[in-house]
């Protein structure tokens, strides 16, 4: 367990940490979040003694860290920052081996660590071990950075906005991977972010800091349900609102996105075959630039379809469209007031985002009321 007891830290006459007390249990994924400058990085650096507090006590497993040898201490604590700082003139294997070598593990043990860690993140040894950082993508470099922190298996890993500079897709992959590794190896992770999405996705416990103080420590669910103050509420933003069902719901919240879309030049027979295979009775037809052209129902094809004709000849302009950002209320009104079976939801560029059907609407309302439905 990591414990802060009344910890204070100032720079000059500026108080950075103000009587901070907190606890992080073994094997816990703890996420420190709060506005920029609230003291998250400072808190993290105190744990591995990159800086020292002015007063108050920090213990790990009951031992006061100020009485420990810092080199020993840091061997038990992995550290990942945004600029991961892989050594550019060392291979992936050498980068991962730094800590095990420092710990003076025998060569076989070092090799074993490198192999097992690369396996863990699905980067085959043969392919990656001998590459240099510059030969890897940003996401792969960060993966190696995370690996290096886990190498030699320190029980505690500190991570300071490690994925801040990555694109959203790589970021999500690494979040999942980190969570998976943490669960598997039962690490204690202290993770800093200012992104509530990330915190909600990763944390067992979210520690919300404000002006050098801990304002709330709670599970994601609990924090969503009972945010301690307005700042936390605003950080929760849309999550918060959807938990209470008071958010402004948009058309996009009610659409289904799996829609059969075909180019307008497709032949009728082919369209029928696709509809049969996918078991749908409506087609969305697109212009050549992927913008919405219209819809065609199976009834229309039955009545008017002829082999060899292009599907665009059968487009009816009965379907109504709605922009995905439009108020869901408008979608309801349109759908309920008409005899239409569905509305076509469009993206801002005129391409098709999805369809709102009576079924998709009912399902989304059910989920809002009772949470995720099973099917
Ligand atoms: N070495 C330093 N000297 C002076 N002020 C510092 C130093 N390090 C951090 N600070 C100040 O302490 C405050 C908290 O910093 P930090 O812990 O990095 O915040 P966070 O990570 O939450 O954004 C900021 O106002 C920052 O400017
Ligand atoms: Mg910081």
UniProtKB/TrEMBL annotation:
Pfam families listed in its UniProt record: ABC_tran (PF00005), CBS (PF00571)
ABC transporter domain span: 2-236
Keyword match Transport: yes
UniProt keyword annotations, A-Z: ATP-binding, CBS domain, Cell inner membrane, Cell membrane, Membrane, Nucleotide-binding, Repeat, Transport
EC number from the UniProt entry: 7.6.2.9
NCBIfam families recorded: proV
Protein name in UniProt: Quaternary amine transport ATP-binding protein
Organism of derivation: Papillibacter cinnamivorans DSM 12816
């Amino acid at each position: 367990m990591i414990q802060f007891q009344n910890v204070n830290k100032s720079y000059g006459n500026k108080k950075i940490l103000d009587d901070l007390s907190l606890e992080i249990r073994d094997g816990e994924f703890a996420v420190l979040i709060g506005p920029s400058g609230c003291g998250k990085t400072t808190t993290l650096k105190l744990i591995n003694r990159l800086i020292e507090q002015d007063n108050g006590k920090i213990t790990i497993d009951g031992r006061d860290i100020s009485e420990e040898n810092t080199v020993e201490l840091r061997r038990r604590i992995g550290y990942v920052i945004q600029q991961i700082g892989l050594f550019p003139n060392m291979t992936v294997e050498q980068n991962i081996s730094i800590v095990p070598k420092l710990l003076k593990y025998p060569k076989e043990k070092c090799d074993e660590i490198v192999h097992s860690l690369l396996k863990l993140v699905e980067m085959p040894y043969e392919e990656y071990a001998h590459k240099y950082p510059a030969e890897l993508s940003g996401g792969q470099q960060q993966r190696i950075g995370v690996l290096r922190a886990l190498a030699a298996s320190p029980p505690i890993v500190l991570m300071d906005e490690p994925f801040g500079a990555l694109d959203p897709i790589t970021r999500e992959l690494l979040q999942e991977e980190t969570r998976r590794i943490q669960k598997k190896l039962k690490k204690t992770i202290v993770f800093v972010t200012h992104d509530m999405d990330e915190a909600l996705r990763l944390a067992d416990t979210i520690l919300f800091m404000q002006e050098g103080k801990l304002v709330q420590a709670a599970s994601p669910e609990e924090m969503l349900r009972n945010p301690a103050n307005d700042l936390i509420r605003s950080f929760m933003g849309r999550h918060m609102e959807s938990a209470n069902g008071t958010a402004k719901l948009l058309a996009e919240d009610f659409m289904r996105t799996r829609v059969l879309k075909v180019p307008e030049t497709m032949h009728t027979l082919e369209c029928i075959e696709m509809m049969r295979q996918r078991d749908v009775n409506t087609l969305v037809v697109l212009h050549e630039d992927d913008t919405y052209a219209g819809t065609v129902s199976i009834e229309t094809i039955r009545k008017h379809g002829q082999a060899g004709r292009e599907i665009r000849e059968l487009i009816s302009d009965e379907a109504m469209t709605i922009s995905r950002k439009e108020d869901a209320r408008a979608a309801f009104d349109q759908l309920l007031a008409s005899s239409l079976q569905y509305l076509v939801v469009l993206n801002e560029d005129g391409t098709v985002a999805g369809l709102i059907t009576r079924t998709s609407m009912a399902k989304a309302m059910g989920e809002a009321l009772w949470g995720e439905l099973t099917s």
